[in-house]
Amino acid sequence: MLINRIFNGNDAVYGLTVGAIDDAIAKNGADKAVGFPNTAYCLPCYYAVTGVKVKTLGDLKEAVGVVKTLMTREHALDDALMSGVATALCAEFIEALKYVDGAVPYEEPCYGHLADAVIRELGVPLVTGDIPGVAVVLGSAPTAKEGVDLIKSYQAQGILVTLVGGIIDQCEELGYKTGANVRVIPLGKDVTSVIHVVSVAIRAALIFGNVTPGDAGALLAYTAERVPAFVNAFAPIDDVILAAGAGAIKLGFPVISNETEGIAEVPGALIPAKVEDFNKTSLEARNIKIKITNIDIPVAFASAFEGEIIRRGDMQVEFDGSRVDCFELVQSKDMEEIEDHRIEIIGPEIDEFPEGSKQSIAYIVEVAGKNMQPDFEPVFERKFHSYINCIEGVMHTGQRDMIRVRISKDAYQVGFRAKHIGEVLYAKVKSEFEAVVDKCQVKIYTMPEDCTKLRHELAVPAFDKRDDRLRNLTDESVDVYYSCILCQAFSPSHVCVVTPERLGLCGAVSWLDAKATNELDPNGPCQVITKEKCIDDRIGEFEDVNEAVHKLSQGALEEVSLYSIMEKPMTSCGCFECICGIEPFSNGVVITNREYAGMTPLGMTFPELASMTGGGVQTPGFMGHGKHFIASKKFMKAEGGIERIVWMPKELKDMVAERLNETAKELYGIDNFTGMVADETIAQDPETLVAFLTEQGHPALSMNPMM
Ligand code: SF4
């Protein structure tokens, strides 16, 4: 019965797909291009399963023939599940047809297809557990309130929620905020739009997992073992939804439903539950563990709120470091100077500020512990941005003495006050850094004169001192480096070697971060790597680094260099901020970043360039890296260093200009180096690029060819 229903649903979708492709060919011709925007993987699901890139409607016609071969009709569960995969592929074809001719088929609030860049951004939060799972909520809940309550429950746990079908209207009906910034992503109202989240899981396997397109077995093993997704399907479930659900089950994603008619439980895969139990049942079925953060505040605290935006009209009060004196600071103290969990407000509380006003704030988190080191202060402090943003109804930007904090009227009305910022900082610092912080207290100043005085007398000198320390921190000045293998959850053979002058390629792990992580959890993702046996100083190769990488990659990597893009380069996992690739006409390299959607002079966009590397394999000529690494004296040192950089997107160039120019001046005596580096407003093809570089006398032109 269940199996017959899956076959019926699959047949229905297959028939629709064949009809839609034939219609599209009749209208546009078989040579018409077809594909999704901002992905290097054409039709990602079909490409991953078969290894074939579909580029035209003619290709699509052939592909649907291949899909037919998956639709075997033995009366066995595996045939039914393969029919589920066939249904998913048909859904991908139907969705792809919506994008023909550059059409924009989805409008707010729906997203439809999600770009490769979104998946790369999700990499780190998924591996760190900040996003512990991915929920696919499908159909209409019995009532809008029940649907929204379910979404809220996932959001409060940090789970990424995707919505398909009637639930999207139910959110709108109750005015519930959705969007990628609050991790509730409406995909589309047709059931076929569910493929856009399937496509995310499948591209994760290609991007992070180094799964070879066409190796369906490895693909299914990857999604089942490493992508913590599940489906919540509201009744009624028709045959088409059931067939799509079978596809999800084949990928390893359990389907939880309140449907009681005409379906049977498949243990661990198709699970009946009441709507109010969906959350609990889903987490159990997928074995998702939620890190409980119990903080005594009147609003929710979850990573899902990290991207929440508080508009001017919605804010109760704003602390704005660009207008008035504000800062945030961590200071180490002696044990006896600290009363644990003391939260002190020195000055007026928010109640005393006029609604919508701009005020000063300074919060100092004082910590003490036997193993505490001043080097950890900036590591904790950099986390404040994320901690404060995780508070529902509070927005934080910037750092140090350039912070801005907005508190919404909604949060204020349910009782949120400045002291709760102290509660959050206390709870997070104590829980995340418990190995080094024994005691912690928070002082919050809200009187402008206090903030001004403390900013100039305490905070700025502390920041200056730290900057001096960082400036003196070089690869040569330290005794050890650190590994980071956090991304192995997705990219099983990838190892970052983190040095003072080369941070992790995600941009989130500096040498100090790795050091702190190691001290907090000596058996955790960051291990000490000695650097005593240098093999080749030019490329930065060490016998001990090689040994560590070999061991930590489970034998996948033998040798790695720290400073070369051509010889034994470091691997990339997929969540890199930037990618750098050789530009042969100029002897230089082009760098582009995840946020830049346009074309580079290499004739490739970021997703296309990024697809050349990743998955924990070495790819000479291409290198994933963090933004801060661009200005490092060790950037491609073996190939001549930053002098090789010939092109960057303008926004990235502006962002790194000050430090890059400083390095260029120090290393080569070049003034205003970024003036010689092209961007998209100057050149988008190699000829214009070389003409510009020639005019500027760019040093790369006279350097040795890299290949
Ligand atoms: S440093 Fe490397 S392994 Fe660690 S989280 Fe960043 S990219 Fe992943």
Hetero ligands: iron/sulfur cluster
Estimated share of beta-strand residues: 5-15%
The best one-word shape is globular
CATH homologous superfamily classification of the largest domain: Bifunctional carbon monoxide dehydrogenase/acetyl-coa synthase(codh/acs), Chain M, domain 5
**Could you estimate the helical fraction of the residues in percent?**
25-40%
Number of domains: 4
Give the termini distance in whole angstroms: 62 Å
Number of helices: 20
Going by CATH, the architecture of the largest domain would be: 3-Layer(aba) Sandwich
CATH topology of the largest domain: Bifunctional carbon monoxide dehydrogenase/acetyl-coa synthase(codh/acs), Chain M, domain 5
Q: What's the arrangement of strands in the largest beta sheet?
A: 3-2-1-4-5-6
Total number of strands: 23
Please explain how this structure is put together.
The protein is of the alpha/beta class and 707 residues long. The chain has 4 domains: 2-102, Helicase, Ruva Protein, domain 3, CATH 1.10.8; 116-286, Rossmann fold, CATH 3.40.50; 303-463, 2-Layer Sandwich (Bifunctional carbon monoxide dehydrogenase/acetyl-coa synthase(codh/acs), Chain M, domain 3), CATH 3.30.1650.10; 480-702, Bifunctional carbon monoxide dehydrogenase/acetyl-coa synthase(codh/acs), Chain M, domain 5 (3-Layer(aba) Sandwich), CATH 3.40.1470.10. Helix content is 37%, strand content 15%. It is built from 20 helices and 23 strands. The protein has a 6-stranded parallel sheet, sandwiched between helices. Helix 4 crosses helix 8. It is globular. The structure holds iron/sulfur cluster. The site of iron/sulfur cluster has 13 residues, from loops. Residues 124, 484-487, 496, 504-506, 508-509, 573, 575 line the site of iron/sulfur cluster (SF4).
